Amino acid sequence: MQSATRRIVVLLGIALAICPGIGLARPHDPDDRHSKTHAAGPNSNIPRASSPSYAGWQPAVGTAWQIELLGPLSNTNFDVEIFDVDLFDNAAATIAHLHTEDRKVICYFSAGSYEDWRPDEGRFHESDKGKALADWKGESWLDTNSENVRSIMLERLDLAAKKGCDGVDPDNVDAYNNDNGLGLTTEDAEDYVKFLANEAHDRNLSIGLKNAGEIIPQVEPQMQWSVNEQCVEHNDECGTFQAFINNGKPVFHIEYPRNAPNITDEDKKICNKPSVDGFSTLLKKLELDEPVMRDCGNRGSDTAWVAK
Q1: What pTM value is reported for the model?
Q2: Is-contact 69 108, C-beta < 8 A?
Q3: Contact call for residues 118 and 97 (beta carbons, < 8 A)
Q4: What is the SS3 assignment for 99?
Q5: Which terminus in the chain has less CB density within 10 A, N or C?
């Protein structure tokens, strides 16, 4: 999604949230199956503000990673420990293959936007939808307080568990920071991400916070990592995300240089910024539609990952 930009932990009873990112791939789910509908909301049986204990997968600071979201993963031969891939577009067999190579897999889905190409798009009600996302055709903000929306997200978490994902990367729950047309606030975002975290942990799925720097103090205890896009470009707000590093959790960081995957000497300076110290930084194309990447290597120098 988003064209303008795109681990054991102590769980506290604090509200959580997630932010804009990258919901890209087109319809095509080799393993998709939808389970029964769940209800959500203040009068339902689905938890909104509890904090179940979780002792699942916690990646380490500085873990090398790759992200490819537009379509099925096209190259598994990068020397990285983690792949972030689209939940719908990748088969369980792909994830199982990565596991045989001792890789971990994070499965991406948009938790805060409607995408008109997803196989479950017909289950959203018109009343669930807010304003369109700027520059992202076919996407609209979602009412994350909607029982229907939450039930659909539970099914997506079920799908992630069924496919064997190790964790999830839920995107676009920072509607509060955008013209969402639904009146959604930071408090709504915190509650929604806490809901997602509880449900993910119940399925033995780790979870990360996508962007949403404003709510890190409230939500970081339940997160296993951060995925951040463009904190350097956005007035170098990367220092905000150092809270994860300070607590032994990685920041999977992406910048989108204009000429990527061709990187200039000026682009390489991103890797040397003190504010991204310890981050797992990639320099990639905004569309995240192909495997080519440049990796800062968490060593303050630019390195080109090449296929084995």
Answers
A1: 0.81
A2: yes
A3: no
A4: helix
A5: C
